[in-house]
Amino acid sequence: MSRKWIIGLLVVAMLVLGVSYAMAAVPETTQKEIDGIYQKMIELQKELIQKYVDAGLLTPEQGKYMLENLELRAKYRSNFGFGRGFGWGMGGMMGGGMMGGLGGPAFCPMHAGTGGLAPSAY
Questions:
Q1: What is the 3-state secondary structure (H, E, C) of the chain?
Q2: For 27-49, how does the pLDDT look when each residue is reduced to its tens digit (9 = 90+)?
Q3: 35 and 49 in contact (C-beta within 8 Å)?
Q4: Burial letters for 24-61: b for 16+ Cβ neighbours within 10 Å, e otherwise?
Q5: Sign of torsion, CA 53 59 64 69?
Q6: pLDDT digits (tens, 9 = 90+) for 78-110
Q7: Rounded to a whole number, what is the distance in angstroms from the first to the last CA of the chain?
Q8: CA 67/CA 65 separation, integer angstroms
Q9: Which of 23, 6, 17, 21 is nearest to 83 (CA)?
Q10: Closest Cα to residue 118, out of 66, 58, 78, 35?
């Protein structure tokens, strides 16, 4: 019985080490390309936020909040990388999401007083 446990632990250790090594092995040229694309995304997001403000879909305060948040995320990524990366969040594709369905965007300054609806929905 103990032999099976030891073999099982060795297999798990090999898988964990192999996956972590594979995730860390990004060629420098590829990383530079990724960083360049990410910078383009940031600039496009800034442009989009400004268009929403200009069109009246966001207030200037909401636009400022979103731009500050965008800058913080970009700074975090430059310091720490993507972290968990792209995905559906903690709730999965159809799950409760980040707030677990308990209030959600009603607590976000972007949606304050809208009952959780996006600004363009009211």
A1: CHHHHHHHHHHHHHHHHHHHHHHHCCCHHHHHHHHHHHHHHHHHHHHHHHHHHHHCCCCHHHHHHHHHHHHHHHHHHHHHCCCCCCCCCCCCCCCCCCCCCCCHHHHCHHHCCCCCCCHHHC
A2: 888 888 988 999 999 999 999 99
A3: no
A4: eeeeeeeeeeeeeeeeeeeeeebeebeebbeeeebeee
A5: negative
A6: 888 765 455 444 544 455 555 545 444 444 555
A7: 64
A8: 6
A9: 23
A10: 58
Question: How many residues does this entry show for the chain?
Answer: 122
- Specify whether the CB–CB gap between 90 and 97 falls below 8 A: yes
The pair of structure tokens assigned to 79 is: 């310091």
* Structural tokens at position 69: 């948040």
User: Residues 38, 77: contact at Cβ < 8 Å?
Assistant: yes
Which tokens hold the place of 81?
Answer: 């990388």
Whole-angstrom distance, CA of residue 80 vs CA of residue 74: 10
